[in-house]
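Reading a protein record of the kind used here takes only a little practice. The record below shows the convention in full:
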Amino acid sequence: MKTGIIQQHNTPDICDNRLRLAEKINRLAADGAKLVVLQELHDSLYFCQIESVDNFDLAVSIPSDITDFYSKVAKEAGVVLVTSLFERRAPGLYHNTAVVFDSDGSIAGKYRKMHIPDDPAYYEKFYFTPGDLGFEPIETSIGKLGVLVCWDQWYPEAARLMAMKGAELLIYPTAIGWESSDTPEEKIRQREAWMTVQRGHAVANGLPVVTVNRVGHETDPSGMTAGIQFWGSSFVAGPQGELIYVASDSEEALAVIDIDMKRSEQVRRWWPFLRDRRIENYTDITRRFID
């Protein structure tokens, strides 16, 4: 599976961000990509650093002229395209939604982010209602994609449920970075934990993982913090957690990575974790905490 990733530094110019993405998607297609994955909320700056009702004006309906734009790009490039949009579902009801376009331009499916963070500079609970579409792989012309979004990547349950429903690939559009007050040692720990947990999902489920993150500095409009330095480091891991590709932690990246999709079957034969699960003993996993 020739998979293209676009790690981009965004600007306040939404139109420019979209046009740069379209140009890069076409370049990746020319290099043989059949699947292209974009970063989280790729059309704009990461607006969740502050809580402002005005930012809801950034949201788009699905379908809309914006989905028409990406539909056309996917069709003309002949790629399956994984996008990440701020969805306006209804007045006062918004989601962080991944929309997947098939190579003919049709909407193959969408996934609404299930786990919503609420941390300093990541005030996502102000904007996004938790997803209600479940952990359902999206069927495309190139296979079943287990699309999740950012904060979902820390939860093994989400990856497992996607795998159990037949996902052939785990995909994570992402927006994560360092806050300026973090020490250099803490920054290293955070980035390494982020990569390690997702490589663990690859191992535990015998599936490749594709993670595409933002890169570059984005200021805090409130001036309360020094903004976020998104750490890039987009990566592709194989079904044993092996790193196939890792992007820069400071520069934009454009790459096509060839993923051996047949290898997952063989890895699952060597390490049959799904076979050996003791499902009759897992009922407590649905509890918040076991006192």
